[in-house]
Amino acid sequence: MLKFPDWLKPQNSHLFRDEYISIKEKQLREQIYQHIISRKSEDEYFDLELARRKISIDDGIVFLHTDICKIVELVQTELIELGWKTQLAFGQTGLFIYSTEKPPQTCW
Q1: Alpha-carbon span 29 to 37, nearest angstrom
Q2: Number of separate domains in the chain
Q3: Which of 1, 58, 75, 77 is deepest in the core (most CB within 10 A)?
């Protein structure tokens, strides 16, 4: 960040939480992107709980489960629009991203 955005004013504090969520959304999207391009097979799932903890630890603020659920829904929609299929597994803590008609065998 080269300079603070013009809107970062006390009278706009009601916008801060949405901006915070937007930043976290970008971080989660980057992690998922790296997961997709680095994995060896589509059987490998993205660990949402680990990602949530990493995001929370990085900034010292607890990133709420409801926040990550909203972001995951958005990311799933984006991936589907790109031609991927997605499925949550393991109590909604794992995100499978795959290209086949059937989910990977490890998805349950």
Answers
A1: 12
A2: 1
A3: 75
